[in-house]
Write a structure and sequence with these properties.
Strand content: 15-25%
Largest sheet: 7 strands, mixed
CATH architecture of the largest domain: 3-Layer(aba) Sandwich
Bound molecules: guanosine-5'-triphosphate, magnesium ion
Structural class: alpha/beta
Order of helices and strands: EHEEEHHEHEHEHHEEHHEH
CATH class of the largest domain: Alpha Beta
CATH superfamily of the largest domain: P-loop containing nucleotide triphosphate hydrolases
Number of helices: 10
Helix content: 25-40%
Radius of gyration: 20 Å
CATH topology of the largest domain: Rossmann fold
Number of strands: 10
Length: 289
């Protein structure tokens, strides 16, 4: 390898909704940067995490589900694709038009198949699933994974690394993500809304982080929860402020786990009528690029 050159590049993490993409990105990069949630379509914007296995650099990019208005152009920017499927339904998933379109769009870029939820299959049966997927002759690696147990993560990392080009370093050593801290914190808060509120109310609440600073040795975060209707404001606050308190508690914990700092969160509820229908508001809250 010429001096100064290393394996350095981008790996896309893509797949259908709720297949474990964000869990996988966190396991691969040993972080909690990408919020994980029970409900589908929780990731709405790309989340990046740069890791440095050996002397290499890989920027993993977690993306929204393929089946919810995917920005196909992102494929052109990456070196390797990790396609996450559910091990038990991978056959049907690979036949879905949106997945077929995605694979065509990768245009012969290396694609590694991560078979998620491998805990749903007995360990002795996993090799048979891998053999079946191998018949497709499309993948540059096939790895069963269980992100929360770190199962398969090293093998997947090696399969990705093999396909990362040798070039001049793309990212300075000091950075570990291309996203802003404010955006990442707002996503941690937004994800918690879904575990406490109806899909309607949570989905129509924007999160705007106004300040992140250090106060009394803690990470201080001030953020607004912006409801699209006055009635939703009451639901966000709850009886005697109980819901807001719960949102605050869960969000502070998630932010603390992601940043590694004690977090003091100051949440305010505001209303901007029908912001979900206003292009300027959507832009302001980061919903349209
Ligand atoms: N049992 C099991 N659960 C998993 C596995 N991977 C992820 N999960 C769970 O599946 C749910 C969805 O995980 P996410 O990582 O948020 O999935 P995602 O694909 O990023 O979801 P979207 O961004 O909404 O498309 C969470 O409750 C995870 O804890 C796995 O290998 N086994
Ligand atoms: Mg996700």
């Amino acid at each position: 390898m010429p001096s100064g050159m290393i394996s350095s590049g981008y790996a896309l993490v893509a797949g259908l909704s709720n297949t474990g993409k964000s869990s996988l990105l966190n396991a691969l990069t040993d972080t909690r940067i990408s919020p994980v949630a029970l409900q589908p379509a929780s990731t709405r914007m790309p989340i990046t995490a740069i890791c440095t296995p050996g002397n290499a650099q890989i920027c993993f990019v977690d993306t929204p589900p393929l089946d919810s208005g995917y920005d196909w152009s992102i494929i052109d920017w990456v070196d390797v694709v990790v396609l996450v499927v559910d091990i038990k339904t991978f056959d049907e998933d690979l036949k879905k038009p949106v997945v077929k379109h995605f694979l065509r769009r990768t245009n012969r870029k290396p694609v590694v198949l991560a078979m998620g939820r491998s805990d749903y299959v007995k360990p002795e049966h996993r090799a048979a699933y891998v053999a079946r997927a191998r018949h497709t002759n499309r993948f540059n690696g096939i790895v069963p994974v269980i992100p929360m147990l770190d199962y398969g993560i090293k093998d997947l990392m090696n399969a990705v690394l093999k396909n990362i080009p040798i070039r001049n370093r793309l990212f300075p050593r000091s950075i570990n993500t291309l996203n802003s801290k404010r955006f990442l914190i707002s996503e941690q808060i937004r994800t918690q809304l879904f575990s406490l509120l109806s899909l309607d109310v949570a989905g129509e609440t924007a999160v705007q982080v106004e300040e992140t600073s250090q106060r009394d040795g803690k990470l201080y975060v001030r953020a607004n929860l912006i409801a699209s209707r006055t009635t939703s404001k009451g639901m966000l606050i709850g009886r005697k402020g109980q819901t807001l308190e719960q949102i605050n508690k869960l969000s502070s914990k998630a932010i603390g786990e992601f940043t590694g700092e004690d977090c003091r969160l100051d949440l305010w509820v505001k209303v901007r009528e029908a912001w979900t229908e206003n292009k300027t508001d959507l832009l302001e809250f980061g919903y349209v690029c």
